[in-house]
Amino acid sequence: MINHKPASLKPKSKIVVGTRGSALAQWQTNHVIAALERLVPNLQIETRIIKTSGDQDQTRSLAELGGLGVFTKEIENALLAHEIDLAVHSLKDLPTETTEGLTLAAISARADPRDCIVSRHRVGLMQLPRGARVGTASARRSAQVLALRPDVQIVPLRGNVDTRLRKAQTDAYDAIVIAAAGALRLGRASEITEYLPLDTFLPDPGQGALALEIRADAVELASLVSQLDHAPTRAAVMAERACLRALGGGCRMPIGAHAEMCDGELHLRALIASDDGTRITRGDMRGDRTRAEELGTELAQRLSRGAVGTKPVAPLRGRKFLITRAREQAAGLADKIRARGGEPIEFPTIDFAPLDDFAALDAALARLREFDWVIFTSANGVRAVADRLHALGQSPTGLASAKVAAIGPATAHALGELGVRVDFVPTKFLGEQIAVELPIERGQRALLLRADIASAALARGLEARRVAVTDVDAYRTIAPKNPMNELPRVDAVTFTSSSTVRNLVALVNGARDNLTNAAVFCIGPVTAQTARALGLRVDAVADEHTVDGLVRAMVEFYGMQPDADERGN
Q: Is 55 a known active-site residue?
């Protein structure tokens, strides 16, 4: 956020904020109003609901209605007519050309920009049944879905986020694709079954960011609202929107773009696709963020020179992959490997057990109302706590006395199955990321429920923010009682935690040489550090620290090498 001195509006001044009537629009508007009130505590603010053409017509596609602007035009008209003073928009809904007489006074810090899958089958895109019905009204989403799953059927989907999430659980759809930011802002992270990675599925330009629009001559108001501007987000979305503008796109064209700051530079990725996803052109560029719009325009020019043909492939074909995670958790990873042509071999090196002594856990659960946040770092922790609450005659809904954080989508899903609302999921699924991003205030109290051997990094990070942390073991991590006696010959080994690494090395003992020629893939940097410390060569580490991220790391690694049959195997 840009640092300015607080603006001095006259005491009688009142700001009228215009917005749409959906639950998400109301959340976004209230979020902005709260930020303004922190700047000027006695500020008078009135909200006015404005129905847009996109809200009024729920039958025709957005492209038929006119593309970009169908959710903003009426609100901008109210601004120009002095009926409202400030408009709060989802930036991705705004046309790339600013309306004459108006200006974007601020673009707030971006939420999660990714798209996500919500499926009643509780699976990701690649695990959906053949011929699955996938709901979306976006040409961009349709094209990218079809590029990955040409067998699926795209089914039109309109409505606000609440409506679309409700439709996702009906027989009309096997899955829907929506913006993750909307589900997260409405506290419905537990319904997300997969976050679609930016390296394979690009969002709308501006997705996840809020635009605060005012009249260009409202100098005093601009002084106040501009304090909510987030410079890195503004640079990123200006590059994305410039790329979209140069390509002449909107809702009628399958165009995706995303930019972010990396190593001091703005990194922009974009794509343009055919409607059926059979042809996709991708490109990326890096540059100074002060040249954001030039960067977007230049990348658009590169993309417009032609399309690249795509075809379905089996990137893991002919290779055997050792799965070391617990037996009850291995199925999901095994399915993803099979879907890409690989052969999964389960070799569990880890198991879970109840605590020997429940005293500390029971004491913490008895004091749930004393905590501002309860934090779970694994689905196993959720299940262990639920089992203990049941043994104590308590309901998991008692967790609702505090806000609840989950380290990732699997943990959020486990909480959702218990009827517990998830209030926070970090942008990267690491304990350290929770410590940085959790919206907790200095002096507040957090209860951390985790495995007995989990890293202390999360607790230390929160304590550094002067948060009072109660760190409690919820379950034990142990080696399996009856491991396989012989390590099978494989092309690669997958590790999903430091425990899986340590236990495999201990289990194989003299057969450790069998790992010498196998590629090693790790779910995250902590796991990779453990593997290297034990003398293993790590070939790839997942950028997104989930099973899906792990599989993508494997696919990218083998994408640079010949298939097994080409190697003569």
A: no
